[in-house]
Amino acid sequence: MYQAPTGLKRPSVVPGILLMVAGVLGLLLAVGIIMIPGALFLLAGGGNVDAFDDFARGFVVTASIVGIVSLAMLITGIVLTVKVGRKRRRINVAAMGRPFPR
Questions:
Q1: What is the pTM assigned to this prediction?
Q2: Main-chain dihedrals φ then ψ at residue 29, nearest 5 degrees
Q3: Domain extent listing, the chain
């Protein structure tokens, strides 16, 4: 494997991968937050739907915020990983003097 000259480091894909993992976990958390009031309503045997709507509204707002931020993290992670991967490939091609087979 090619070793960069001293003082030069190849860019790492780790931050992008961590952002993708955090984004997926955040989306799962948002789904869980949305499901909590419905599960509580069903476990309690139903009841007053109007009062439940007021109770569930806060959960929906929280889940929406968590979902939007997580989706942004997921997209950012994908874009960052692709950009760094292309840059690493260019560095490898420049060091080896030949393109990689596709």
A1: 0.76
A2: -65, -40
A3: 15-92
pLDDT at 50 over 90: no
Question: Residue 44 is which amino acid?
Answer: A
Half-sphere exposure of 37 (CA within 13 A, CB side): 18
* Predicted confidence band of residue 56 (pLDDT cuts 50, 70, 90): confident
The whole-angstrom separation of Cα 84 and Cα 75 is 14
Residue with tokens 């997926």: 24
Q: At what angle do helices 49-96 and 14-43 cross, to 10 degrees?
A: 160
Burial 70-89 (b: 16+ CB within 10 A, else e): beebbebbeebbeebeeeee
Cβ-proximal residues to 78 (8 Å cutoff; 6+ apart), any chain: 16, 20
User: With bands split at pLDDT 50, 70 and 90, how would you rate the model's confidence at 101?
Assistant: low
